[in-house]
Amino acid sequence: MVTYIDATSAPLKNTGVIRLYDADAFAGMRKACQLTARCLDELYPLVKPGVATDVIDRFVFEFGMDHGALPATLNYRGYTKSSCTSINHVVCHGIPNDKPLREGDVVNIDVTYILDGWHGDSSRMYPVGEIKRAAERLLEVTHECLMRGIAAVRPGARTGAIGEAIQAHAEAERCSVVRDFCGHGVGRLFHDAPNILHYGRANEGPEMKEGMIFTIEPMINLGRPHVKVLSDGWTAVTRDRSLSAQYEHTVGVTADGCEIFTLSPGGLDRPGLAA
Predict the structure, then answer these.
(1) What is the CA radius of gyration of the chain?
(2) Contact call for residues 53 and 220 (beta carbons, < 8 A)
(3) Which residues bind substrate (predicted)?
(4) Is the pTM of this model over 0.85?
(5) What CATH number has the domain bearing residue 113?
(6) How confident is the model at residue 1 (pLDDT cuts 50, 70, 90)?
(7) Is 28 a member of any domain?
C-alpha cells in the first residue's frame, strides 16, 4: 500500500513512504537544481575531442566548491568521483578517467549537487565533435522521451503514465527502454521513494500528488534494452554494445502539473542539437 507523509515530519532516510514537500522545500530545490543546471551549461564548451573525462570531473568538483555545494556522488557508497560520464554504449554510472574523448563520441554527464541540504540532480547528452546521424537521432528521441514523460506529470495521474509516454515514443522510433534503472524521489535524500519507471501503463504505480519531487531520467538504446554491470561494480553497458542515451530532469508536482527544477538557464537542455 502506498503511503504519503509531510516531508517536514519524515525521518531522514528512505522508508518507502512518499514525501510531500512544501513551498520552502521547492525554493530550496530550485537553488540546488539551478546550480546543477548552470554547471551542465558551463561544461558544454569543455566537451570536445582530446579532453579526458577526468578533466570534466575536476571541473564539476571545483564548480561545486566555488558555489558552496558538494557533489552528491563523491564517496557515495564508495564511488570516488564527482560525476558520472557515460560514453557511447555505457548506459549509466560511467566512471571518469584519463582516457580522452574521441571525435564522434556521445557522452552523458550526470551531476548532482548538495546545496543547503537539497539535492539537485540532472544529466544531459553531449556530442563530441561531429557525430553520426544515428547517434544524433538517438539523442533527439531520448530527449523527446524525457519531455513526454514530464508532460504526463500532474496530480491525480499515476506514475505509470510517465513510463507509458516514454515507452510509447521510444518504441515507435524503433528504440528500446532500459528496465534495469529508474528515476527516483529526491530532495533532502539523494535517492528516495517513489521509483519512477520509464515503461509501463498509465493505470499503474503510485498516484502523483502535489508536493512530490522526483527525477525522470529515461535511458534509451538503439538496440536491445538489456544491460550488464562491469566488474568495477558501477559501469552499466548495453549487452549488444549498441549506443545508449539519457537525459534527466528533477521535477516537482504542482497543483496543475509540474515544475522542472533543472531547466538550463542558457537554453542548453539539448547541447549540440538543433532547437
Answers:
(1) 17
(2) no
(3) 93, 191
(4) yes
(5) 3.90.230.10
(6) confident
(7) yes
For the record, the C-alpha cell of 70 comes out as 558538494
Binding-site positions for substrate read 93, 191
pLDDT (tens digit, 9 = 90+) per residue, 120-157? 999 999 999 999 999 999 999 999 999 999 999 999 99
Question: Which residues make up each annotated binding site?
Answer: 93, 110, 121, 184, 191, 217, 248
Rounded CA separation 18/2 (Å): 8
Number of domains in the chain: 1
Task: Tell me the residue type at 182.
Answer: C
Distance CA 270, CA 56 (A): 18
Domain that includes residue 164, residue range: 18-260
* Binding-site residue ranges for a divalent metal cation: 110, 121, 184, 217, 248
Structure confidence by residue, pLDDT tens digits, 170-210: 999 999 999 999 999 999 999 999 999 999 999 999 999 99
Listed residue (254, 257, 245) closest to 145, CA to CA: 245
The verdict on residue 271 lying in a domain is no
Q: Pick from 247, 238, 256, 152: which is nearest to 200 by CA?
A: 152
